[in-house]
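Suppose a colleague, Dr. K., hands you the sequence of a protein chain of 321 amino acids and asks what its three-dimensional shape might be. Before reaching for any lab equipment, you can write down a predicted structure in token form. Begin with the sequence itself:
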Amino acid sequence: MIRLDRVTKKYPGNVVAVDDVSLEIQKGETFVLVGTSGCGKTTTMKLINRLVDLTSGTILLDGEDIRSMDSYSLRRAIGYVIQNVGLFPHFTIERNVGVVPELIGWEKNKIRKRVGELLDMVGLDPEQFAFRYPNELSGGQQQRIGVARALAADPDVILMDEPFGALDPITRETLQDELSPLWDQLDKTVVFVTHDIFEAVKIGDRIGVMNKGQILQSGKPGDVIKNPKNEVVASFFAQHRFQLELLTTRIEHIVESYNEKHLKREKDLPALQSNDSLIDAMDALKTSTHQMVPVYDSKKRYLGIVTRKSVTKEISNLIEN
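The predicted structure, expressed as tokens, is then:
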């Protein structure tokens, strides 16, 4: 879907922001660029939709060189979400969300229908929010509107630049939990920039660790954390390595067979999905009055259970290793 081949960006004075980066991002995956401020991650992302023009190298989008595309058409075809949202203050929410479809010539009825669908998708009632203005919304609600606007013209690619950075921790975590499954459901390719390592490993199918304009290592979050290629990558995760290992270790391999009929059908019985983490399992078991929690796949099919014993054993293995 997106391929960067030896991409470099230099600014006047021979300041190198992005240094010989090669990278492939597959269709439908969420790829997170993570690193400290000034490492080049935002510039790398902006090169993809030509908000910044590259100095050398090639960027291909579905096999086509982005330099051969009209820059305005390219940007309208790629969703873009930023930290401070960038909503137009004098536009209603409906018009903010529909601005790109309006620019590319959609009919008004089609735009209105699409806006309603998107507001529902991001958890905001269209009847309550469509005709409000941005200053009448909370920060979390505005960020949801930013996501809806990025999805309005149904782009295949979404770029997200520190989208939750200005939010309080509770709202931030809520949006992380809600939006990650949404990308899977919609089959969007997402390039996400953050300096928050917990956010990166939580939402990324793969992550790329950047430093001084270079991607030092990329791969699945758990693989990068457990097998860093060099001391710089290792030091980036070192302070929180154990917590990150808990967050990236999935429970799918500790699911035990158990007859579903024997589970107590209590309404407050928590449940897990097979791709949930050990931290998710710990939280679920803590709130459960039972020694076990049922596990389901992404299609809500029952798989079995995890128990306090199996989770405790897995955590002990991580400590020993």
